[in-house]
């Protein structure tokens, strides 16, 4: 890397197989040197210097020999050469990703599994018998690193057709350059590492082509060193979107019994790691709120202001106010809630002190990426109070305004996240009008459209270049499925992690969790996650139905009953 003194190769974290077929520092192995100079330099220099269209239509590699005064070395798949770079050297490191179509259940492979697939053609499920797709330049790079692939282990596809080919023949997988990532790909981890994660460690990641180019020609060195890598972590921003938060009834009682930060304990790290963590809090904070009752019949809610400590503890960065219970305690409750957010310097959107305040987007710029949140409430318009010129409330859905504002923000370079408090439905399938409303926001320029109203998770879709998730399920709420009317699976929820790089949405990660103890989500087990993803990929129309074993029900840690727990005293308000 520029400005970094390099003493030893970083190979300790990689399996021994990583060095198979790799040359020694000056290519004492003449066979590998000949192969490498004919292929890898053309592939990587064109990748470094060319446009995206050039990357996907490379000329035959054997027709372009290197200049006589150039020599090349590749040391390993890790990004560090074995010795200090000299004045006549330029250094390139190119990051790749192992990917599969978005509706793929498997989350990752070990490096040994990947290398066996390359060298022997035996891949882990569901990819066994399925060749790795890649373009010609990528094949050249990994042939230099890992030697020739086994017969049938790889299929060459033009770079601009790899995604289409993969989706048309699922299950499938591919290796692509980092800059080729887009949301319709699922990035698979290799040895637990992924270049779209905040905790990504390049030194432990095997899908890196790292070379030192020696040449007496300064123009050649400058051409290579001008773009030393296709990956810069300083350009990456992550956003975590969540579903319904309602700190009331049994959730609130659990907080009283076990502490205000208890509901977030098992997802705290997930939320705090994100550059922007979103919470859609439907309930007003209200000083006069009474002690919580799990058997409360009236659907008029409030939360004790001390519960704000939960949002602080999980690292919430933006609050959505589109919820249809925001006005439950009138103007006083809404204004008190907003004053608390302002005191905490916590941006909000989708509601406000008046109509103008409610309609304004929340704007962020993180690591050079501009991100805008905008949202509205549909079911309360004309039925319950929403914001007006003279009173606080949730932002009423004005679709002409939203379409115009989203288009304006998109034109200014913002990645727009549009959210809805739509009509509630305990069904994985959205209503036809819900689909039309969400797609309108996508057509207006929103990269992401997310349903914040759903107590029961809903399907998702790609609409042109946008990702739509019609409902994520509850984040913090007491719906445990223990009442007859509640549908099976209501405890299952999504966290959606969006990865934005260099001003563009490049990846979507579905994080799955299960509500327990009437208050607290925890990450799913591998078996629970597989069943949940398969079911929702089927609902989304991407894969055929595949029955999976029903996971064991997690025992409730704090038994709740209606009426409330015996022996729990209820303080006077």
| Spans where pLDDT lies below 50 across 5 or more residues | 1-39, 45-85, 549-555, 561-573
- The radius of gyration is 26 Å
Distance between the termini: 63 Å
CATH architecture of the largest domain, by name, is 4-Layer Sandwich
User: Structural class of the helices, strands and pairings?
Assistant: alpha/beta
Mean pLDDT across all amino acids: 83
User: According to CATH, what is the topology of the largest domain?
Assistant: Purple Acid Phosphatase, chain A, domain 2
Approximate helicity band = 10-25%
Shape: globular
Assess the beta-strand content as a share of residues: 15-25%
Specify the CATH homologous superfamily of the largest domain.
Metallo-dependent phosphatases
State the domain count. Answer: 2
| Biggest pleated sheet | 9 strands, mixed
Give the CATH level 1 class of the largest domain: Alpha Beta
Helix tally?
14
Number of beta strands: 25
Describe the structure.
The chain is of the alpha/beta class. The chain contains 14 helices and 25 strands. A hairpin with a 3-residue loop joins strand 24 (504-516) and strand 25 (520-523). The N and C termini lie far apart (63 Å). Mean pLDDT is 83; it is low at 1-39, 45-85, 549-555 and 561-573.
């Amino acid at each position: 890397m520029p400005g970094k003194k390099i003493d030893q190769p970083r190979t300790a974290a990689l399996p021994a197989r990583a060095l198979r077929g790799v040359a020694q520092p000056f290519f004492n192995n003449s066979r590998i040197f000949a192969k490498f100079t004919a292929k890898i330099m053309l592939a990587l220099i064109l990748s470094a210097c060319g446009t995206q269209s050039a990357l996907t239509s490379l000329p035959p590699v054997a027709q372009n020999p290197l200049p006589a005064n150039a020599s090349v070395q590749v040391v390993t798949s890790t990004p560090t050469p074995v010795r200090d770079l000299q004045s006549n050297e330029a250094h390139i490191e190119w990051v790749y990703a192992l990917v599969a179509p978005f509706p793929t259940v498997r989350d990752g492979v070990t490096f040994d599994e990947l290398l066996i697939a390359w060298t022997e053609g035996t891949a882990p499920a569901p990819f066994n018998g399925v060749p790795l797709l890649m373009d010609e330049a990528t094949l050249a790079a990994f042939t230099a690193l890992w030697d020739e692939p086994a017969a049938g282990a790889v299929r060459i596809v033009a770079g601009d057709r790899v995604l289409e080919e993969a989706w048309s023949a699922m299950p499938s997988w591919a290796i692509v350059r980092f800059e080729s990532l887009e949301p319709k790909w699922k990035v698979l981890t290799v040895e637990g590492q992924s270049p779209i994660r905040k905790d990504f460690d390049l030194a432990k990641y095997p899908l890196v082509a790292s070379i030192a180019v020696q040449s007496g020609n300064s123009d050649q060195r400058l051409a290579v060193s001008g773009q030393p890598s296709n990956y810069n972590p300083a350009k990456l921003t992550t956003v975590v979107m969540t579903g319904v938060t309602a700190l009331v009834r049994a959730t609130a009682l659990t907080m009283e019994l076990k502490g205000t930060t208890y509901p977030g304990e098992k997802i705290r790290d997930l939320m705090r790691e994100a550059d922007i963590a979103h919470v859609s809090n439907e309930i007003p904070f209200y000083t006069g709120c009474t002690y919580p009752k799990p058997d409360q019949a009236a659907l008029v809610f409030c939360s004790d202001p001390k519960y704000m400590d939960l949002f602080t503890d999980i690292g919430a960065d933006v609050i959505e106010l589109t919820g249809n219970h925001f006005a439950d305690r009138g103007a006083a409750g809404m204004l008190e809630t907003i004053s608390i957010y302002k005191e905490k310097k916590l941006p909000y959107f989708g509601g406000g002190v008046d109509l103008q305040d409610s309609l304004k987007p929340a704007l962020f710029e993180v690591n050079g990426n501009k991100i805008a949140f905008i949202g509205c409430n549909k079911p309360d318009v004309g039925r319950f109070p929403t914001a007006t010129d003279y009173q606080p409330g949730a932002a009423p859905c004005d679709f002409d305004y939203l379409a115009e504002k989203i288009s304006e923000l998109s034109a200014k370079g913002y990645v727009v996240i549009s959210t809805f408090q739509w009509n509630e439905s305990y069904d994985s399938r959205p209503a036809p009008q819900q689909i039309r409303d969400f797609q309108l926001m996508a057509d207006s320029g929103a990269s992401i459209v997310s349903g914040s109203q759903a107590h029961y998770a809903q399907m998702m879709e790609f609409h042109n270049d946008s990702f739509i998730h019609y409902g994520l399920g509850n984040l913090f709420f007491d719906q445990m499925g223990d009442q007859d009317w509640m549908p099976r699976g209501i405890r299952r929820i999504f966290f959606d992690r969006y990865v934005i790089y260099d001003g563009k949405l490049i990846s979507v990660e579905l994080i799955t969790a299960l509500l327990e103890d009437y208050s607290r989500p925890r990450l799913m087990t591998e078996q629970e996650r597989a069943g949940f993803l398969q079911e929702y990929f089927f609902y989304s129309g991407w894969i055929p139905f595949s029955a999976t074993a029903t996971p064991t029900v997690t025992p409730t840690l704090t038994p709740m009953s209606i009426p409330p727990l015996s022996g729990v005293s209820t303080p006077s308000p």
